[in-house]
Amino acid sequence: MESNSSSNLTQNLKLSNKENDEADIISFRLLDLSDVDDFMEWFGDDNVSKFCSWDTFKSKEDAMSYVADVAIPHPWFRAICLNDKPVGTLSVSPFHGTDKCRGELGYVLASKYWGKGIATRAVKMAASAIFVEWPHLERLEAVVDVDNPGSQRVLEKAGFKKEGVLRKYYLLKGKPKDIVMFSLLSTDQQVTYFM
Ligand SMILES: CC(C)(COP(=O)(O)OP(=O)(O)OC[C@H]1O[C@@H](n2cnc3c(N)ncnc32)[C@H](O)[C@@H]1OP(=O)(O)O)[C@@H](O)C(=O)NCCC(=O)NCCS
Q: Best label site of 20, 36, 77, 171, fewest CB within 10 Å?
């Protein structure tokens, strides 16, 4: 579990905005129930849920329940904020027992913010934070659908190693799918470069 001091760790990164030459700030923060309207922007979008295990949320009540029951109690679930506005989420889910050296990364972004490098920045920020906050963690892994090249590219740009394809690894909307396994180790050099 994260410590109180580490849960307060906040990182900011400036993202150059090519259109108006200003710098956008990307940061993380904890979610709360007042974020539900922003939250629906991505959890209510079929384009976002296409490669996710959850189905598109149909109502604000669904989103309220998810924030209350999943996001808030989760050990590392953050809103990705662009200039303080939540535009997506990123989580690191711990494994337990003899698997506790691993954590699994997941992320989603509202579709109108795609293609600006936001997810890549957020993944780098999370990777540098999590190995400090959870010193027992040796490996951060991400499991990506073979048909989701955008997400694979995010991990490649963030320095994750593509380890291989695992066949029929999960059910996507009931259909068995192959995935690409990516990992970043605490000892990988790029982890310190992100800081
Ligand atoms: C995947 C996702 C997080 C990417 O967010 P993003 O902020 O647009 O990502 P970035 O801008 O940092 O990088 C995206 C990269 O993928 C590339 N890309 C996007 N779609 C692509 C496609 N169909 N084929 C090949 N490359 C693609 C982009 O060109 C970019 O690479 P580049 O910088 O080399 O040009 C976002 O699309 C999303 O939320 N998708 C839905 C949820 C999801 O799939 N989550 C991941 C589950 S594992």
A: 20
